[in-house]
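Me: Here is a favour to ask of a fellow structure person. Could you put it straight underneath, so I can go through it closely?

Assistant:
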Amino acid sequence: MNLEEIYELHLGRVYGFFAYRVASRHDAEDLTSATFERAVKHAGRFDPRRASPATWLLAIAQNVLTDHYRRGARRPESLTEVDALDARVAGAPDRPELGVSPELEQALGGLGDREREVVALRFGGDLRGKEIAQLTGLSEANVHQILSRSLRQLRQAMPERRP
């Protein structure tokens, strides 16, 4: 599989991961781009015997996110607030959502960093427990336990949806 195919297959996963981790559409797009730039630069290091392309890309994405925060980017308070400001500045109030609803973003804010990372890898990055364990250094059982507790906490924090 070449890099172009990897890009086309996994762009949504990488962007989805960032959608769960940052509150700015602009940051998510920039970080996604930076991830693929690093992937191209380090393509020779990819070993399909050690990890799938998705796992490899999301490992790069985790490092890109860490570097982003080390450079002084603060973690945004709320996706809703940032998107509302972006829409007013851009003059486009009907822009599509970043990837998570405002209710989910608020509920995610109640999770710890490790829990939010595991949820982002599972639902934003569409990875399975084994792949998340490989990326995070946690046991697969621990990943499933974190997901279970996090989902329970998210369900409690989110308002009931009525038809």
